[in-house]
Amino acid sequence: MLQKPLQLLMWVAICLLVLLTVYVFCMLDMLWSPLWLVIKSLFIPIFIAVFIAYLLLPITEWLHGKGMPRTLSLLLIYFLFFGGIGWSVYKGVPVLIEQLTDLSASIPDLAENYNSMLRHLHNHTDHWPDGMHHRMDKMIQQTENFLAGTIESTIRSIRFVLDYILIAATIPFLVFYMVKDIDLMKKTVWYLTPKSWRKRGSEFLRDVDDSLGDYIRGQLLVCFLLGLLAGGSFWLFGLPYPLILGLIIGITNVIPYFGPFIGAVPALLLSLALSVKAVIVVIVTIFILQFIEGNILSPLIVGRSLKMHPVVIMLALLAGGELAGIPGMILAVPATAVLKVMAIHFLRIRTEH
């Protein structure tokens, strides 16, 4: 009879000990903070390199299967990929910083344009309750502060990345050796994995790759093309900040269903402060881009590789947005696909036993 109370006391003591250890660990910030910086400096480049190698490996293997030597196919894809990124960074980052700085300086003028629009709206909506007018003014002020803070944080993030350019320079070398020695790495992981896990582990990774691989590669290519088309269209029609708007549209298009609407909001807000012509250009451009994506790019490049019902995807997006905003919505679909594979394998193991 005394065993259960003793076990309960033991679990309480263990929990208190764990909490005390965590508290002491947090208080010793001067000791673990440098160690965390070292781990972060190592983990981030390795994570990025693994992701890029995962993207490039199928293309390299496809060229190798067509008869091209593996090293030559790797070098070709390697230099095309990193050469394109290097050229884009060299040409695009100074323009991006210039446009962000200009946009940050122009926010008061844009806000004044919105205020004049509001005053004009007030003159035609005198019968509305006063509280509604106050809420509209407050919403504009909050939007102005949010945009200013977002732009400043983006500029700081770009400069932060440039400060760590030496660490970023190791990524191409990591990618090269990861793709080149992929067979050796697979064998190493195979022998380091316990024998009882090898078969199930390889099946799990294969199912995750089947569920996610083509989707991620195809979606990234579609987003790149849409961002390029959007930025080029805005530049062609003389809209300011085409690079910023094109980047926003390209990045947010990763989010299924909601992404195009989220990406269109900044362009529409900016065009409203400029002219009616700018609004028409933005609306027509967004509709054309969505037609191209929905009828040409996505069916041709992405297809139905995700193998998830649209209702499940939308629920995952809502949950991701609630938990972490836009980044959560971007990561929601891949995370749900992995959880789906995990659930299938868990049920399979349960039925086997």
From TrEMBL:
Q: Could you state one GO biological process linked to this protein? A: transmembrane transport
Q: Which domain of life is it from?
A: Bacteria
**Membrane topology for this entry?**
Multi-pass membrane protein
Transmembrane among keywords: yes
Q: From which source organism is this entry?
A: Bacillus nakamurai
Sequence intervals crossing the membrane: 9-32, 38-59, 71-90, 161-179, 220-237, 243-262, 269-292, 312-339
What protein does this entry describe? Answer: AI-2E family transporter
Q: What is the lineage of its organism?
A: Bacteria, Bacillati, Bacillota, Bacilli, Bacillales
Q: Which Pfam families match?
A: AI-2E_transport
Q: Which GO terms describe its cellular component?
A: membrane
Q: Which InterPro entries match?
A: AI-2E-like
Q: Where's it found, cell-wise?
A: Membrane
Which key words tag this protein in UniProt? Answer: Membrane, Transmembrane, Transmembrane helix
* Family label: Belongs to the autoinducer-2 exporter (AI-2E) (TC 2.A.86) family.
